[in-house]
Amino acid sequence: MASSLTCAGIVWAFLSFLCAAASCVGFFMPYWLLGSQLEKPVSFGTFRRCSYPVRDESRQMTVMVEQCGRYASFQAIPSAEWRICTVVTGLGCGLLLLVALTALMGCCVSELISRTVGRVAGGIQFLGG
């Protein structure tokens, strides 16, 4: 397998992939904010939440659901700012992953990454970050 990347390009490709993977894992994990509510530990992120309160109409009280899951809908995300954060972070992770996978393919395919493509990919990474 031939590569058009220099040693620095190969290091860039693998570091790009590691950073993109870490960003995606951070986006999907619900441990951005930790705290307690109704004497139970709770945590949530932009995309998921763990241990959240729900109104039980049959018993006329609020109970804690002690499990992790996504928000039921996009509108169930607590605020407009949080929704914007979810979209922007998701788009950034997508861009980082796109560049990282392209760079990894450049390690295996000859003449895939030129100087111009490398600069554009760096700009996309900057935008994704």
From TrEMBL:
Signal peptide location: 1-21
Q: Where in the cell is it found?
A: Membrane
Question: Its principal location?
Answer: membrane
Q: Which UniProt keywords apply?
A: Membrane, Signal, Transmembrane, Transmembrane helix
Q: Which GO terms of the cellular component aspect does the record hold?
A: membrane
Q: How does it sit in the membrane?
A: Multi-pass membrane protein
Transmembrane ranges?
A: 87-109
> Pfam families recorded for this chain?
L_HMGIC_fpl
Q: What is this protein called?
A: LHPL6 protein
Source species of the chain: Chaetops frenatus (Rufous rock-jumper)
Q: What is the lineage of its organism?
A: Eukaryota, Metazoa, Chordata, Craniata, Vertebrata
